[in-house]
Design goal:
Chitinase A, domain 3, 11 strands, Trigger factor, domain 2, single chain, Alpha-Beta Plaits, five-stranded antiparallel β-sheet, alpha+beta, four-stranded antiparallel β-sheet, 421 residues
């Protein structure tokens, strides 16, 4: 077998393979023998039909299976011979079977780039730390109040800010219920602050009662594309109107929502939590800035196959999180393309730093991580280990620990100045 490799793109390789006639003939005999054993031909017992008859009757099938088998087998052997690992499904083309049984073909596929990290240390950047304000503390406590609000029944029509417990569906022009549009037991706010929440605005003034019709003409520039320029008819059954009552901010409330015993303790606890979150965010931003600096200083090509895989994963995640929303997939891909390319480059950089600095993950590292998870969850190490029984789960844990080692290495080997925003 003769193999030639040429570079046909930044990360693409074209493999030209020529297979000697003897190998092709061996494969042909295997195909014919398999057909003789399995073919059912009138007048012959299985496996007893003459070879010439099999070859004549199944000529097209023999050639098709022969080409597939030879190409698949020789391509795999060629990869092993050239020590190549494709990242994409190969595109096979120009398959030619000569009169002398010599077979040739070309296969195009992507491979990982060659990376030379000339610089990944001694960058200078800033870690911007945000100082928590009293307004942010008050805002967080207001959020806690919202989360612990009570809904009091109200025997009047809904006013702005009230909530309605409703069943609703969409109707067609003939008053028939449209398929898959029935939504029972929905708690919806009347008169939402968002000016585009037209359905919410239409609930203002509604009282308890069945079969109430709401017609909304959505403007041509409405943000939700499927509703633009449409007239939508809703049938609403109002089961009840609720007035939201927020709890008072007092010592009783503080003890209910936290381990603090009074309002002063609650404010201090909230401030500390915000501070920790701001610190974590500052660390993440610093990490990403370091990777950005490394990418700018060490340009390299990346395979389209990995970018596409990352885009697909992010798109599926978005769909799962927003199942009731429509999405312009083409526009979504355009928006997140730079992010996907960054993530692919980031992953390559992590692996290269691991290789150059020999940042291996030990069993003790994995054990320490599991203990950390157990402490965070208030569980035991044995219980947490159950989540990592599969090889895939353990590999994911190993990758996480490895990435954390690389990040820690970068933070320790670059000049990071802490500044207050």
């Amino acid at each position: 077998m003769k193999v030639e490799i040429s570079k046909s793109g930044p990360c693409e390789r074209t493999m030209s393979v020529t297979v000697e006639p003897e190998t092709v003939q061996d494969h042909r005999e295997k195909v014919i023998s398999g057909l003789r054993r399995e073919a059912k031909i009138k007048g012959f017992r299985p496996g007893k039909a003459p070879r010439t008859l099999i070859v004549k009757r199944f000529a097209d099938s023999i050639k098709e299976e022969l080409l597939q088998n030879v190409v698949t087998d020789s391509f795999q052997k060629a990869l092993e011979q050239e020590n190549l690992m494709p990242l994409s499904r190969p595109v096979v083309e120009k398959v030619d079977l000569g009169q002398d049984d010599e077979l040739s073909f070309k296969a195009r596929f992507e491979v990982s780039p060659e990376i030379n990290l000339a610089r990944y240390k001694k960058f200078r950047t800033e870690k911007k730390v945000h100082q928590v304000t009293d307004e942010e503390v008050e805002g967080a406590i207001d959020t806690l109040r919202e989360q612990h609000a009570h809904f009091i029944p109200k025997n009047q029509a809904a006013e702005k800010g009230d909530y309605l417990l409703i069943d609703f569906c969409l109707l067609d022009e003939n008053g028939e219920v449209l398929p898959d549009t029935e939504r029972p037991n929905q708690l919806v706010m009347a008169g939402h602050d968002d000016p585009d929440a037209l359905f919410s605005h239409a609930l203002v003034g509604k009282a308890e009662g069945e079969n109430q019709i709401i017609e909304i003409d959505f403007p041509a520039d409405y943000p939700d594309e499927p509703l633009r320029g449409r007239k939508v008819i809703y049938r609403v059954n109002v089961k009840g109107v609720r007035e939201k009552a927020l709890p008072e901010i007092d010592d009783h409330f503080a003890s209910q929502v936290s381990r603090a015993g009074d309002v002063a303790g609650l404010k201090e606890l909230v401030r500390e939590n915000i501070k920790k979150e701001m610190e974590r965010r500052a660390e993440r931003e610093t990490e990403e800035e370091l990777f950005r600096l490394i990418i700018e200083s060490n340009p390299f090509d990346i395979p389209n196959a990995l970018v596409e895989h990352t885009l697909e994963r992010q798109l599926n995640n978005y769909k799962n999180q927003h199942q009731n929303q429509s999405i312009d997939e083409k526009r979504f891909r355009e928006i997140i393309q730079p992010s996907a390319e960054f993530l692919v480059r980031r992953e390559y950089i992590i692996h290269e730093i691991v290789r150059k600095e020999q940042l291996t993950v030990t069993d003790d590292d994995l054990k320490a991580k599991i203990e950390e998870f157990a402490a965070q969850l208030g569980s035991t190490e044995q219980e947490v280990r159950k989540d990592f029984r599969t090889r895939e789960a353990m590999n994911n844990l190993r990758s996480l620990v490895q990435e954390e080692k690389v990040v820690r290495f970068l933070l320790d080997n670059n000049d990071i100045k802490r500044v207050e925003e």
